[in-house]
Design goal:
Structural class: alpha/beta
Order of helices and strands: HEHEHEHHEHHHHEEHHE
Number of strands: 7
Helix content: 40-55%
Strand content: 5-15%
Number of helices: 11
Oligomer: single chain
Length: 276
Amino acid sequence: MTATRAQLGELVRVLEAIGPMVVAFSGGADSALLAWAATAVLGAEQVLCATAVSTSLAPSELADCRALSAEWGLRFVEVPTGELQDPAYVRNDEKRCYHCKSSLLDALVPLAVERSATVVLGVNLDDLSDHRPGQQAAAAGGARFPLVEAGMSKAHVREMSRRLGLRTWDKPAAACLASRLPHGTPVTVERLSAVWAAESALRSMGFGQLRVRHHGETARLELDVADLSEALARRQEVVAAVHRAGFRYVTLDLEGFRSGSLNPRRAPSPTAPEGT
């Protein structure tokens, strides 16, 4: 599936219809395309790209937001959010993302009101089918999803970004660090820091798409299936790096990387045969 000239035209139409906006800018492929396109269509004076800064944002992602803003001439601001002061978020139940997005909207809506603007998020069509309660919070807070309104999937986002020459077109997905903690495990600075240290060390070794899932003293490593043999060949180096991050045990998940592996399992369709 590829992005077409018609889809680009539709995205332009959606952005023009929305008008002045505050983009929730995480630096990922989706929000990067949205920030770049909105600025190109409406002009930097009409588009504020705001990055929510908290302990759950990996330092490398904040650094890339700053770099992209400088490269693309985005009007950029860093906005501190305080989700770790919210007991509902720290509790880390299945609505953690809802509380996180509520905190984000609390920070971005005042900026939008000051500018008679609309808060927009880089949500694509594929996201609508996943367990993402944060989208409910965003929609309830009046945010809009221009990529969805333009009919764009993740594949469309990456293809359009590639055609436009944006270096984020193949950037690995990077959810917030709290997504590495199983529901029910309280979110703490120490746990987030351990995850970040382990993932940073593994990326410095050349591993790309990955997650370090935090299971107490155990780190469960999700790597691209193509990288599993490399991880085994460098087993001692991998184990030492994860130990330095503070974990006692290191496991390699043979299913490989998969986004949302800690999300609640959905019940099978009543019409689907067993074992599908």
